């Protein structure tokens, strides 16, 4: 059993803590007050995320490696949500691409890129054109005049349910809420009050909070929560539009989340009037019945991105860093976590999924580095079990 310290209780932090808790002594540090989402949208990007699992649609923004990780993660999410006894938080009903007639040219260019989807471990998915009747059968609230394509196999996860569930399913983990990490080094986590904790393995999954240890930036995203009783929506929908790439995602309780904007800014201030108007107008052009929906709240957050917008796993003795999950963290996290743990030779929860790659010269834990109790261990005031 190794002593493992994790900086960051966002998506990766919770996933890793849950996977490692069965076989290791795990401590997690995060500045948040506790495991739940904050009403102002601060905290992990993971809480704000739409939760679309779109390996095919993301080919429009990224390469085949992301798609391959995504398809693997889809298999893992099924196992994870089953293990968490939350099977309803993960669905693979496919997703839809839609376009207005006037934007068909731009849509065709996107579709041509997606049509080149690589054959990944026997998973070959390409967009399927839907006629009016097929669209009405799948999604009756979508304007039937729109052009529509089904992306089979794509999925959706419910972040607001899965994040607390991961935490609750790992009761042996020491969740140190209200603890901000200043730096992470091999076998060492230093808090912002200068105190230091020693571990066999230190894991840095602080997302945008990992600076200056890592060259990450935040990319602003904005979402609008609507409540729309009686307006059916079963799967994520993306509007292919030259300017407004809006997505519309169903959530429990008659809720619908609209999102889009990707702004190169770390501004966490509230959603601008222009963004809100554009998002909602575009969404209403897809689903006219949203006109009577109620605006529940608006939220902004920052996607953690590296300079090349690619995710990255860095390992060395006593240290693991994963960052740069950018706009597809939910899509990638399980496969990245699996690869990282395999590279370190760490046994984790028995998830099957696709077999992880055989580690090549992976770094293992340096034995005997762990120190016993520190000041933090005695400071139980901020320990919060999920
Ligand atoms: C608007 C929006 C929509 C999105 N939609 C999707 C989507 O549909 N599908 C998809 O796959 N992905 C989506 N994403 C991306 C996804 O949310 C992120 O890629 C993912 O959350 C990254 O996971 P992470 O664990 O690296 O970071 P985070 O989830 O951001 O977690 C980082 C954690 O580190 C903690 N932390 C920060 N600083 C410190 C510190 N100094 N000390 C200790 N802890 C610290 C934070 O409090 C947080 O808990 C979206 C993101 C946004 C913002």
Automatic annotation (TrEMBL):
Keywords assigned: Oxidoreductase
Ranges where the FAD dependent oxidoreductase domain occurs: 4-338
Oxidoreductase found in the keyword field: yes
Family matches, as InterPro entries: FAD-dep_OxRdtase, FAD/NAD-bd_sf
Pfam families attached to this UniProt entry: DAO (PF01266)
Protein name: FAD-dependent oxidoreductase
Native source species: Hydrogenophaga luteola
């Amino acid at each position: 059993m190794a002593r493992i310290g994790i900086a960051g209780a966002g998506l990766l932090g919770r996933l890793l803590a849950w996977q490692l808790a069965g076989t290791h002594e795990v401590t997690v540090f995060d500045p948040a007050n506790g495991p739940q989402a904050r009403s102002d949208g601060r905290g992990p990007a993971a809480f704000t995320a739409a939760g679309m699992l779109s390996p095919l649609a993301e080919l429009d923004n990224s390469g085949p490696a992301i798609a391959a990780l995504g398809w693997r993660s889809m298999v893992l999410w099924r196992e994870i949500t089953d293990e968490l006894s939350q099977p309803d938080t993960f669905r693979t009903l496919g997703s839809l691409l839609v376009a207005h007639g006037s934007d068909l040219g731009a849509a065709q260019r996107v579709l041509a890129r997606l049509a080149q989807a690589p054959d990944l471990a026997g998973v070959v998915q390409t967009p399927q054109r839907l006629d009016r009747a097929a669209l009405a059968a799948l999604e009756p609230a979508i304007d039937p005049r729109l052009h529509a394509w089904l992306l089979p196999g794509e999925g959706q996860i419910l972040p607001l349910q899965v994040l607390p569930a991961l935490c609750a399913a790992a009761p042996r983990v020491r969740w140190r809420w209200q603890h901000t990490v200043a730096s992470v080094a091999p076998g060492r986590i230093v808090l912002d009050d200068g105190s230091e904790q020693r571990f066999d393995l230190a894991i840095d999954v602080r997302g945008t909070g990992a600076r200056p240890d890592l060259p990450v930036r935040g990319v602003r995203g904005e979402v609008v929560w609507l409540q729309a009783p009686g307006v059916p929506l079963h799967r994520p929908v993306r509007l292919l539009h030259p300017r407004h790439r809006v997505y519309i995602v169903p959530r429990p309780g008659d809720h619908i989340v609209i999102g889009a904007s990707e702004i190169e800014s770390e501004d966490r201030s509230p959603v601008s009037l222009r963004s809100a108007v554009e998002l909602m107008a575009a969404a209403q052009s897809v689903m006219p019945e949203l006109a009577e929906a109620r605006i529940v709240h608006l939220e902004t957050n920052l996607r953690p991105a590296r300079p090349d917008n690619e995710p990255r796993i860095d390992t060395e003795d006593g240290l693991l860093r994963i960052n740069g999950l950018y706009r597809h963290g939910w899509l990638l996290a399980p496969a990245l976590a699996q690869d990282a743990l395999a590279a370190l030779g760490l046994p984790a929860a028995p998830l099957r999924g696709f077999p992880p790659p055989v580690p090549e010269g992976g770094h293992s834990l340096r034995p005997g580095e762990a120190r016993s109790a520190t000041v933090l261990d005695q400071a139980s005031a901020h320990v919060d079990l999920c």
